[in-house]
Amino acid sequence: MLLPAAALAGVSAAALWLVYAQGWTLYYGDAEAHLNIARRIVDSLTPGYSQVGTVWLPLPHWMMLPLVRNDALWRGGLAGAIPSAACFVVAGTFLFAAVRRLFDSTAAAAAATALFALNPNVLYLQSIPMTESFFWAALLALLYFTVRGSAVGAGMAACAATLVRYDGWFLLPFVAAYFWLTAGRRRAIVFAIIGGLGPVYWLGHNYFLDNHPLDFILGPYSSRAIQGGKPYAGLGNWRLSWLYVSTAARLCAGPVLTWIGVAGIAAALLKRAFWPLLLLALPPVFYIWSMHSSGGTPIHLPVLPPYSYYNSRYGLEALPLLAFAGGALVALLPLRIRNWAALAVVVAASAPWLLHPSPRNWVTWEEARVNSEARRAWSSQGAQYLASRYRPGSGILTSFGDVTAIFRQAGIPLRETFTGDNGLLWLAATRRPCLYLDQEWVVAQQGDIVEQAVENNRSCVGYYLEKIIVVKDAGPVLIYRR
Q: Which residues pair with 407 in a beta bridge?
């Protein structure tokens, strides 16, 4: 296992360096947010456990903590990117081990791992502070331990998955049923107890912080609340849900791997690898169901209405399935040609990316670039303005959101900012600013609660508008000073 792990580490490090050197690490708004959530746990006016929040699951943020304390690693984004890359290596290693164990073929295992690891969309997501790599590591560890029949190992992997993505919750009953049918009631119960610790903990966490165990679904920061009830393609329509998720998968995987995967699924069925196919199909099935039923999971793609970019990365949920199927296709062939077949499928799947190497052909990268242009422009201008003017200790009233990028880039610690995540004092300052607002600076986005607090109380708060940052396709950013 050392050789595939070392190869994966080399590929991961090369991709991480490229992404960081090109300045792409924090193009995704969610990547910026994940990084800053981890940072505020240790750097805030009110640091500590509560800063994890109640919507995004906590494990990725916890894994960033050892590095995010370092100012340089936080400011450059590497504090979140390095743990993501490490999880990519773990994911690929478990995929290799599972395929080799199932098919008794090193060639098939190498093919499956390479099909997964050499995809440029995968390589981009593993190089930034997003949750995909963390989930792949848990999912493919779960595959390996179920193939081995280890209820304890599978339970631990499933528990990790439930603390990374909500798709991990969806896996639990299926895996428990698998152990019940193949290994007996005792192992199924052991798995269920260990794997179920994650959801039980998270329900308790939400109740502890907000007095509502389902705050992550029904609260003001849930995906459903953010969507605001607005309709989207696929909501209440199974055909469109399938179309958008399958199209996202095809754009992420590339045209050749998609067809290799289809053929490989047939090969896996012939090899009687029923359980791995089912397990790896569950994440994309979850997104089809979620898009149809949740009211908060839209996908926008450049080839389907409304011809834009949003959540295209959900298509990567099918990558482990397609890669595994590619390995099964190699395993079905005679032993004497498996090595050559493995090389052929990897070269064929990589050909579209090699023939058109521009990152604009990587749908996840292009989504991140397009959707971040305005945010990167105004956050850079805001950081340049504050970096030379802000005096430590003077304080900034703001909101924890996209504007946090300004303070990260300016090198202003988050403990210098006063946000909604600091609790009741912030509510007092925004609702009764004449009595409780005493920070020297205010950084707001037009229309948010911070701007309203200042503008509606101009006569007593004593702030003047010092800087307006206006960029195309974004609302103005307003910087006030007392």
A: none
Gap between the Cα atoms of 458 and 434, Å rounded: 9
Reference 19, options 379, 350, 359; nearest CA is 359
Q: What distance lies between CA 26 and its chain's CA centroid?
A: 12
Q: How far apart are CA 307 and CA 427, in angstroms?
A: 39
Query: Which sequence spans correspond to the domains of the chain?
Result: 2-355, 367-481
In 87-201 the beta strands, taken as DSSP E runs, fall at none
Distance (Å, rounded) from C-alpha 361 to C-alpha 277? 28
Question: pTM for this one?
Answer: 0.96
Share of the chain above pLDDT 70, in %: 100
How would you label 299-329 residue by residue, b for 16+ Cβ within 10 Å and e otherwise? bbbeebeeeebebbbbbbbbbbbbbbbbbbb
Strands 417-418 and 477-481: unpaired
Report d(CA 10, CA 340) in Å as an integer: 23
Sheet holding 441-445, edge to edge: 417-418, 396-397, 441-445, 477-481, 464-469
pLDDT in tens, 386-433: 999 999 999 999 998 899 999 999 999 999 999 999 988 899 999 998
**pLDDT (tens digit, 9 = 90+) per residue, 8-65?**
999 999 999 999 999 999 999 999 999 999 999 999 999 999 999 999 999 999 999 9
Query: What does the pLDDT read at residue 441?
Result: 96
